[in-house]
């Protein structure tokens, strides 16, 4: 990596670490799970993953409409939304197990804010907060490429060890 690129990457990494509150780490920092879930095993903090792909944006799901995928429970706004997810979970499940896309690009497994999101090329990407998302949006292709490269070696690691 050229010196200028390395310096830019280090500056971004430093600013991300500074803007991430301590509570922003994956909920269970001792879990080696590849899926970001809460203590009840719920992904996306209960948001309906299908709604990220519609014009209305993300919506909180309802406990009466749930489905399991890769060991996580997802909530949905309706039976129709749940059924769409079950027909093609790979389309709707978030990238990097629902961990922060910028965090993965920087070799971290961080929790997310379900309101800090973007669908890119048909895939849902989440970020730890809106400030980090702004930095992620500065180089979406590069950050996705770096995160895709990092994810195989990070996905089964314990967040607090990274």
Automatic annotation (TrEMBL):
**Which keywords describe this protein according to UniProt?**
Signal
Cleavable signal peptide: 1-26
The protein here is known as: YHS domain-containing protein
């Amino acid at each position: 990596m050229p010196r200028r690129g390395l310096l830019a990457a280090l500056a971004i990494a430093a600013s991300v670490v500074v803007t991430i509150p301590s509570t922003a780490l994956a909920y269970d920092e001792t879990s080696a799970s590849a899926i970001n879930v809460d203590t009840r095993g719920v992904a996306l903090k209960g948001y309906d993953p299908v709604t990220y792909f519609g014009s209305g944006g993300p919506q909180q799901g309802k406990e009466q409409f749930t489905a399991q995928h890769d060991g996580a429970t997802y909530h949905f706004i309706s039976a129709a939304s749940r059924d769409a997810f079950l027909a093609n979970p790979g389309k709707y499940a978030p990238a990097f197990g629902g961990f922060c896309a910028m965090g993965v690009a920087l070799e971290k497994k961080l929790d997310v804010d379900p309101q800090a999101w973007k669908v890119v090329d048909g895939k849902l990407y989440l970020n730890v907060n809106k400030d980090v998302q702004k930095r992620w949006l500065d180089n979406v292709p590069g950050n996705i490429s770096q995160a895709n490269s990092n994810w195989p070696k990070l996905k089964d690691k314990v967040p607090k060890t990274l």
